[in-house]
Amino acid sequence: MNAKRKGNVKKVIITVLENIPFNNEGIWGRKKFKKRTLSEADYFIAATFDAKLALIKEGADEEKISVIGLSVDTSMFFPDKNYISKQKTSKDINILFVGRIEKFKGVFDVVASFNQVVKKFPDKKISLTLVGKGSEENQLLNKIREYGLDNKVLLKNVKYGNIPDQYRKADIFVGPSKEDKYWKEQFGMVFAEAMASGLPVITSASGSIKEVVGKDAFLVKPGNVGEIIKCLSDLIENSAKRIEYSKKSRKRAEKYLSNKVAADKLDVVYKKLL
Fold it and tell me: Residue 141 pLDDT more than 80?
C-alpha cells in the first residue's frame, strides 16, 4: 500500500487464502491494517469461494473480487505410466500422506486407520509413507511403535523437487485435515498435487478442500477414523475403483487445477485492471 501511495506502483492486487472472517484480529495492528487494505487495494484474488465470502463479510467490495484457485504444474506432477497395469496385477499397496506432522492435519487419524486396515487385509502387502515435518513427529513415532507398525510405516522429510516421485510411487493418497476456531484448510496444495499425479484421494469435508477435489475424491467427516477405514478398504479391495478414481483425479487436475487454467483466469483480471 505504501508503494502505491508513493507512486511506485499503479495498482495493488492482493491474493487471499484466509477463509475465516475476522480471524486473528486480536493481534496488535491486524484490524487496522486489514481495514486499510480493504479500502485501498484495487482488487482481490480469492483462492476459494470461502475466502471470497470471508472478504465480503469483512467489508470488501464484491465487484473487486475474483475467485482463482492455486494451481499445480501438471507437467511436474503426473501419473506413473505403469499405475494402471500395477493396480491390475500387484497385491502391494502404498498409501501416502504428505503434509505437516500435526494433529490438525489428520496424520494421527491416518496412522490409526492404517493400523486397522493392515489387520483387515493380511494377504496384501500394505505400507504407509508419511512425508513431512512438524512439532508432533516424536508423538507420532511413539504411536507407530505402540501399534507395532515400525516395519510398515515410513516417516521422512523430502525436498520439494523430489515430492512428485513420492506421489508416483504411491497407490492411494489420504489427507483428512481437521479444523479449529482459528484455522481450517484454506486450499490444500497436496490435494491438487495428488490429483495431478493420478492418485485416488481420501480427504475430509473440512475448510475449502471440497472446492479443490469436487466430487472426484472420497470425503469423510473430519476426525472420523471409521470412515477413513471404510474408504481405504473400498480402494484396497477394488483395483477397478482405484483405476477409476485415478483417472478422475488426473482429469480434474487438467481441467480445473493446472497452471494454464489459473494463468488464463489471471490474464483476464490483469488486462481488465490495466
Answer: yes
How sure is the predictor about 1, in pLDDT bands with cuts at 50, 70 and 90? low
Q: What's the CA gap between 17 and 78, in Å, rounded?
A: 25
Residues 92 and 137: their CA atoms lie apart, in Å, by 26
Cα–Cα distance measured from residue 109 to residue 113, given in angstroms and rounded to the nearest whole number: 6
User: Is the separation of the CB atoms in 201 and 245 below 8 Å?
Assistant: yes
Does the domain spanning 83-256 belong to CATH 3.40.1130.10?
no
Question: CB within 8 A of 103, min separation 6: which ones?
Answer: 136, 178
Burial class (CB in 10 A: 0-12, 13-18, 19+), 3: exposed
Mean pLDDT calculated for residue range 174-194: 94
Helix count (H) and strand count (E) of the chain? 12, 9
- Cβ–Cβ under 8 Å, residues 179 and 21: no
Residue type, 234: D
Q: Name the pTM for this structure.
A: 0.94
Span of 29-33, 85-89, 195-199, 217-221 with lowest mean pLDDT = 29-33
Q: Determine contact, residues 167/194, Cβ cutoff 8 Å.
A: yes
Grid coordinates of 224: 472420523
Architecture of the domain spanning 2-70+258-273: 3-Layer(aba) Sandwich (3.40)
Please tell me the distance from the alpha carbon of residue 53 to that of residue 249, in angstroms, as a whole number.
27
pLDDT in tens, 102-125: 999 999 999 999 999 999 999 999
Q: Domain coordinates of the chain in residue numbers? A: 2-70+258-273, 83-256
Burial group, residue 31, by CB count within 10 angstroms (0-12, 13-18, 19+):
middle
How far is 104 from 224, CA to CA, in rounded Å?
13
Query: Over the Cα atoms of the chain, what is R_g?
Result: 21
